[in-house]
Amino acid sequence: MIIISDAREDKRAGQFFQTVGQPMTTPCIICVAITGSLPTKADNPAVPITVAEQIESTHEAYEAGASIAHCHVRDDEGKPSSDPDRFARLKEGIQTHCPGMIVQLSTGGRSGAGKTRGGMLSLRPPMASLSVGSNNFPTRVYENPPDLVDWLASEMITYGVKPEIEAFDLSHIYQAKLMADRGQIKGTPYVQFVMGVKNAMPADKRVFDFYVETVKHLFGENTPWCAAGVGRHQLELNEWSAAAGGHLRTGLEDNIRIDRDTLAPSNAALVELAVLAAQRHKRPIATPAQARAILGLRKG
């Protein structure tokens, strides 16, 4: 059962849920990363590749409780792309079939080089990812040179896009603070810790706790934040974040399995596991409208 913070009919879940009084804690935002740049149908047949598949998969995840869709696109061969036209079709489809859902487009480096990574920002999505520094990945350097980061941030300001800061390293949180102080990021940065990538930040509870403490120290005690765990660490990070008052990311981009022996049948199945993690810690699931209010976004 999805618990929400007011009595209403939750059309996404198709059931009526009610709580008495105020929610015990802040509603929990669930972000679903639907495709990414790496997983293929050979890895898991449920990975949505075409725009039509992505829209259908996102709608299922939306009905399961996701309020944010983190989106990459692929070309006709299934390879990562930054094609603005494909992003436009995906954004339109999600907005049509998932009313109010927050569309977050990726400016990640696997999908393009240089300013092509931000070519879709003129579509004015509510959010886009922003990596503010470089780090190692399993087999390559994830390059985010300062001049490109500055340009992407300026484009987000121009088009009214709220960045989600993807922090692969402690220095990235401090860089987000510096950019906010300089006016390169409007408002309080929304930071997401990405943990469990080989050669980058490990999924370590002590490290996680320090990152949470750092965000609160730099941006304020009640600042919203999120965490993502890669591979087998996805459910672990969902649990830690739900317990600590943060928000959750899940989806086939980061993890293609339910457990060691079972492939995830859909993005929605992973969202359902994130919902359960939130419920274990008495966290109501944020509706899209609540997620927008928490993040300071314009109404959908």
CATH architecture: Alpha-Beta Barrel
What does the average pLDDT come to? 91
Radius of gyration: 18 Å
What is the percentage of strand-forming residues?
15-25%
Number of domains: 1
- CATH C-level category: Alpha Beta
Low-confidence stretches: 1-23
Order of helices and strands: EEEHEEEHEEEEHEHEHEHEEEHH
The CATH homologous superfamily corresponds to Aldolase class I
User: Sheet bearing the most strands, described?
Assistant: 8 strands, parallel, barrel
Q: Do you know the CATH topology?
A: TIM Barrel
| Order of adjacent strands in the largest pleated sheet | 3-4-7-8-11-12-13-14
Oligomer: single chain
The chain-level structural class is: alpha/beta
Number of strands: 16
Could you estimate the helical fraction of the residues in percent?
Answer: 25-40%
Any chance you could write out the topology, listing elements then pairs?
Elements: E1 8-10, E2 15-17, E3 30-33, H1 51-64, E4 68-71, E5 73-74, E6 80-81, H2 84-97, E7 102-105, E8 127-130, E9 135-136, E10 141-142, H3 146-158, E11 162-167, H4 170-181, E12 190-195, H5 205-219, E13 225-229, H6 234-244, E14 247-250, E15 257-259, E16 262-263, H7 267-280, H8 288-295
Parallel strand pairs: 3-4, 3-14, 4-7, 7-8, 8-11, 11-12, 12-13, 13-14
Antiparallel strand pairs: 1-2, 5-6, 9-10, 15-16
Helix pairs in contact: 1-2, 1-7, 4-5, 6-7
